[in-house]
Amino acid sequence: MNAPTVFRGSNLVMSAFAILTFATIALAHHSTTMFDMQKTAELKGTIQEFKWTNPHTWTVVTVEGDAATAGEYGLEGMSPNYLSRNGWTRHSLKFGDKVTLQYHPLKDGRKGGFMVSVRLADGTVLDNLPGRGGVDPATTR
User: Fold this and answer.
1) Range of 83's domain?
2) H-helix or E-strand containing 95?
3) Does residue 69 fall inside a structural domain?
């Protein structure tokens, strides 16, 4: 008679383990520990690639300048779902676009980070972070 009770108990333990495991994975995915979220830097460059992919968008931009700043930067962005609710489309950034980007740099000093906003050549500002309001209406034409 005890076997069914033990079996139910082990199912409960296994279910709890699975829930905790997947919750930990989901939380780890959204970590921003690699970025210096207290520092915001700015780049002026040319879009090389904009990937409208889940779970996060990805932008590659080429920056000209001195040896310390010149090069290719990889910038992570919010999800397409989030960005589309804030005025972005998969065509918001195109190869060759001249842009000014604000971003939270990588803590390890590599060329990249987490995108904060993009100012297009026509003055339109596209925000990337929650709470920043999406497209800046003052600069949208």
Assistant:
1) 41-127
2) none
3) yes
